[in-house]
Amino acid sequence: MKSDVDINSIPCSGKNYGESVLYFPANLPKTGREKTGENPVEFTHGMDYTIYEYAKKAGGETVASYQSFAQVYDLFMDNIDYDSWSVYLTGLLQEYGIDDGLVLELGCGTGSMTERLARAGYDMIGADLSADMLDIAMEKRDESGLNILYLLQDMREFELYGTVRAIVSVCDSMNYILEEEDLLQVFRLVNNYLDPGGMFIFDLKTQKKYRDMGETTIAENRDEASFIWENYYDEEEQINEYDLTLFIRDEEDGRFDRYEEYHEQRAYPLETIKELIRESGMEFIAMYDAFTHEPATEECERVYVIAREQGKQEI
Questions:
Q1: For the chain, what are the domain ranges?
Q2: Superfamily of domain 208-266
Q3: SS3 for 124?
Q4: Phi, psi at 198, each rounded to 5°
Q5: Which of 181, 202, 268, 273 has the fewest Cβ atoms surrounding its Cβ within 10 A?
Q6: 35: number of CA atoms within 13 Å, CB side?
């Protein structure tokens, strides 16, 4: 749907915020007719959300990360035991007294974890940089009837109306932050938007995980879609790159459309993560081998990091 409507006139609301509010990135065009290349900006909107996406035909050309992949992300992630994962995450939250209240998930993607945390009793906000992933998350919300607020935001500059009891991030979303100064900025924003003593829990893939992946090619074929994943890890730069070629069946004519995406992730030494947390003003609490309470080492493939807000006082 193309629109000439100024975004400031589109109503949106969020439970627990007390008034209608939604935040947009600073570079969001002011009207639906501003151009990006040959295509106008398209808006979709609903009862309590407004999102935008830059329309771009992707017939075999490279598109932004998680644009075409969003269509089949859940299909190829169906081997992930989100239920057990959410039990582990909620267990960590409860250990530090977070049994309910507002919780933000950064890098929420298609909302698989956000939905589970909402069902566990948390008032959830999900933020992600991909409008396509959020579109799917909101379709899930429509089906489940859960009251979740989704925000289209870059975690390096996210904004909230107020503070929250906890912030979480899973599925190695933090590895997508490629520069230390940007990761430090994320941590500072987290500390700013947490309640006094609020908790921050996130996971990371480790240097060992990326080294083990190395230079490899992975392929998978399904009836609805197929992919080829070409992976390369630059150990000196600590950057993992992968080129993703997708073949997605068109529901109308049955033909497969080809899409390509390019992704980068950064491997951080564990000590660097601890130092950045402390530099951001937060208190470093613990780092576990994923899905355990065993102290993390450089031999772990995925770790969970726990930090606590510092600097605010209860009113």
A1: 208-266
A2: S-adenosyl-L-methionine-dependent methyltransferases (2.20.25.110)
A3: strand
A4: -65, 160
A5: 181
A6: 3
